[in-house]
Amino acid sequence: MNNLNLSQTSSTPSILADWSKGIVQMKGDSYPENSFELFQPLIDWVQAYLATAGQPLHLDLELVYLNTSSIRSMMDIFEQMEAAHKKGQMVSARWFYDFANERVGQLAEEFREDCTFPFTISSKPR
Amino acid sequence: MTNQPSPIDLLAIRDIFNRQNIMLCFNGPITAPLIEEIGKALRNHMEGLQESPSSVADVFSVYIEMAQNIRRYSQAEGFEHEAATIIISRNEPGNYVISASNFIKAADGESLLERISQLEHMDKDALKAAFKTQLRQPRTALSGSAGLGLIDMARKATAKLRYSLQPLDNGRSLFSLRVIL
User: Fold this and answer.
1) Does the global pTM surpass 0.80?
2) Cα B82 from Cα A87, distance rounded (Å)
3) B72 — contact with chain A (CB < 8 Å)?
4) For residue B71, what pLDDT is reported?
5) Residues of chain A scoring pLDDT < 70
6) Distance (Å, rounded) from C-alpha B123 to C-alpha B39?
7) B30 CB near a chain A CB, below 8 Å?
8) Which one of A33, A36, A104 has the shortest CB-CB distance to B32?
C-alpha cells in the first residue's frame, strides 16, 4: 500500500500516512465542503493497514477546528482503531493542541471517551 | 419624469447595520470559496478584537455549520442560484449572534421544524448524547450530510435556538435560524 501525503490548505489538514513507520499524522483545520471525499482515502488506508500490516498504528494529531462532517470522519477512523485494539492489535493516538484553545481539548476529550486504547491529549504553548 | 426605481440608500442600510450591531453580513448565492473567505475574514476580525480563542472558535464553527448546511441543501435541491442571508452580529449584552435564512421546500420546512423542536427540550447532557448517537448512524443512513450540524449548534448556544418558517406562495418557505452564543 502506498503512503498518503496531502498538503495542508486553509480548509483541509495535512495528512501523512506512513506504512513502514505505522504512523498517521494530521495537522491543521478541517472544514472542507465535502469531508467524506477528503477522508475516504485515509479511512481506506487505515482499514488496509490494520488488516494487513501486522504492526502497531500510531495516530499523531495536531488538528485544530473540525466541522461536523470531519468529526464524523475522524470517528470512523477511531472506531476502526478501537475494533483493532479489541482484537489485540497495538494502536495509539496522541492529540496536541494549543492550551489557549480549550475547544480543541474538549473535542479530543469527547473522542477519547469512546476509546479504550492509549490516547493522550497534550496541550502545548504555541 | 420617468418612474425609475429609487437609488439604493446605502446610508440607510449602513445605519441599520450599525443599529443592529452587525459585524458581517452576506446576502446572495453562496459558494464554497465564499464560505471560506468570509470565514477567514470573521476569524481575523475577531482576533483583532482580542476575543478569546474559544469565542472565536465557537462563532466560526456555528457560521461554518450554518453556511455549509445551506450550501449543501441548496445544491441538492437546485436552489444554488437563490440568495441566502448570513449575518453575524452582537446583541445588547454582547453575545455573538449568528443568523441565517434560505429558501427551502415547504415540506422540508415542516420536518426541519420538527427536528429543531426536538432539540429544544434537551439539556446539554441530552444534546451530547444525541450528538454521539447521530455520530454512530451508519453511513448508508446519511445522505451526504453527517446530520450533526444542528445538534452541534444547539450544544454551543447559550440560549434556545430561534427559528421561523415563512410560507411563500410557490411551494417554498423561507427558513430562518438564529443562534446566540
Assistant:
1) yes
2) 51
3) yes
4) 95
5) 126
6) 29
7) no
8) A33
pLDDT at B87: 97
State whether residue B95 is helix, strand or coil: coil
pLDDT band (50, 70, 90) for residue B1: low
Residues B110-136 have a mean pLDDT of 94
Residue A101 sits at the chain B interface (C-beta within 8 Å): yes
Residue holding cell 422540508? B108
Structure confidence at residue B138 (pLDDT)? 86
**CB hemisphere CA count around A67 (13 angstroms):** 29
Question: Can you give the length of chain B in residues?
Answer: 181
Residue boundaries of the structural domains of chain B:
10-180
Residue with cell 455549520: B65
Quote the pLDDT of residue A126: 59
Q: Which CATH superfamily does the domain covering B10-180 fall into? A: Histidine kinase-like ATPase, C-terminal domain (3.30.565.10)
Strand order in the sheet with B172-180: B22-28, B84-90, B96-105, B172-180, B162-167
The ipTM estimated for the assembled molecules is 0.93
Superfamily holding A4-124: STAS domain (3.30.750.24)
| Spans of all domains in chain A | 4-124
